[in-house]
Amino acid sequence: MSDSLRPLEERNNGMNKISDVVYKWMQQQQQFQFDFAFATKLADYMGKERKYAKCREIFNDIINQGRVPNESTFHILTIAYLSSSVQGCLEEACNIYNRMIQLGGYQPRVSLHNSLFRALVSKLGGSSKQYLKQAEFIFHNLVTSGLEVQNDIYAGLLWLHSYQDTIDRERIVELRGEMQRVGVKEEKNVILSIMRAYSKDGDVDEVERAWLQLLKSGCKVPSQACVYQMEVYAKVGQSMRSLEIFRGMQEYVGSTSVAAHHKIIEVMSKTQNVEVTESLMSEFVKSGLKPLVPAFTDLMNMYFNLSLHEKLEATFSNYLEKCGPNRTIYNIYLDSLVKAGNFDKASEIFNLMQSNGTIGINSRSCNTILSGYLLSEDHIEAEKIYDLICKKKYDIQPSLMETLEYVLSLKTKVLKKSVSLKLGTEQREILIGLLLGGLQIESDDERKNHAILFEFNETSSVHYAMKRHIHDQFREWLSTYSKANDENEDIPYQFSSISHSYFGFYADQFFPNGRFVIPKLIHRWLSPRVLAYWYMYGGHRTSMGDILLKLKGGNREDVERIVKALKANSLDCRVKRKGRVFWIGFLGINSSWFWKLTDPYILDDIKHFLRADIQTLEDTVGDEQSLSFENESDSDKNRTDQSD
């Protein structure tokens, strides 16, 4: 935002705060009488300013008074939720939209129908499939209201249907018939959705019919169409036909895609055709295409199911030479070691996974090593893993329960029902480092419960590696929809903790008035681990190898306390202010001292991005490239410091 617009923004923020304070004051008066018109204006104003939490609070007040909010309030609140990228806001937008129709009896504008629908289908792959019922409801409302149904609505609805676990063939036929009736042509994306749906259902005839339709359309044949052909023939047990289609892709597509390599290796590995699968894998590796991880996963699973443990170990070693650490790959190898009775090596691999933040452990790996310790009758280690499982709140596999109960009974120890939530020392230090780096805390209106909002930059390689590690570190604290399961290893770039009073200390220290401040006692908390996580989350290495720590908020006096604490630990640094952001710079030899201090706590897989005194740089971010520490500050020294 330009400096000329900043006073206007500050004035609007001030008006928001004053209006909210006045409204709360009115509610506390003994003679208070609810003013529907005032509440509506305030709710609409908050919603237009994208203050969806405040708008929702007043919206709820209106309903609690037995009144139905105005159509404008429903509309504005839905849009406010849609404008936010915070996890859970899309679901809330759907909730308000539904109540607008079912409670208010209103007919939303066509723009609201379309905006919500497009938000539902905006996610990649099958992550949108849970929204099918909501999408159908929007489609129904468009039709019954006599509004125009645009082509992308039909396409989006078929796309959602094609990703369902159980394909509703009847509904797909209905939608295609409706498209034909209103004159909507089936374009390439629609045909692909049809192929995807029927390939899942094992309907060869429908897939081939759609394939011919695709060829007749004259469009360039996408490689994904061949993948769906391979899939449907594999479904009906004709894996060699799938192989023929893979070999024939050159004719129709011009090349074999990564997805095609993944699919044919998946197909042939499931048939346990070792020779063909190994040949395809070798071909894929030589092609130079990536990623290789899904193919290695299928190959290793095939070896595991065939008890070819030596081949699996050789493949694991080959994987490590070509790819970065991956938890699924390590879990398969761990399973193999336990199944083969190599318990010492299994223990070594588990410890490596646990110590490497980029890999980490999960319920599967803990249960696997627990079964190994129980089989080898190593009761001491089994008890340690059991305690770890309880701490992480993982489920214990039923097949292990009887043996585990016997082992625990030897020490008159009973199975724990639950473990109270409490942050460990390492978690506390990590949290402080992340908060200094820009992590946010969201508090309820009474400031009794607080949620940690974890957000990572999708364009940063450092953040990509960090998000899994942080997800694992705080797993027991995460809200239900933020937790990844063992089958789905994808960690979102945004997730949040449960709202809990335990985080009150951190909210009071870093966000006492809802805005970031630097705690008075920060000088006591700047441990090497805190600095490392601050650097990983909110820091930067320049092209000259200097290290910068970003601090968005606070004032000069607060920053000087941090600088003083750093210098007390022999870390000399310079401070540069750019707008409302302070940059603490460790230059020259001081960057090496900083690195030496924090190196033990930096994740192994991102050290090459962050190590001091290295001239190359992968991740570059904005204005910090042009920062110069020759002057004390870009801002006027006499300017009054304001927290961000």
UniProtKB/TrEMBL annotation:
Domain Homing endonuclease LAGLIDADG: 428-594
Disordered: annotated span: 623-644
InterPro entries: Chloro/Mito_RNA_Process, Homing_endonucl, LAGLIDADG_dom, PPR_rpt, TPR-like_helical_dom_sf
Annotated GO biological process: Group II intron splicing; mRNA cis splicing, via spliceosome; photosystem I assembly
Keyword Repeat: yes
Per-repeat ranges for PPR: 326-360
Keywords carried by this UniProt record: mRNA processing, mRNA splicing, Repeat
Gene Ontology molecular function terms on file: endonuclease activity
Chain intervals with Basic and acidic residues compositional bias: 634-644
NCBIfam families: PPR (TIGR00756)
PANTHER family, sorted: PENTATRICOPEPTIDE REPEAT-CONTAINING PROTEIN OTP51, CHLOROPLASTIC
Entry protein name: Homing endonuclease LAGLIDADG domain-containing protein
Source organism of this protein record: Kingdonia uniflora
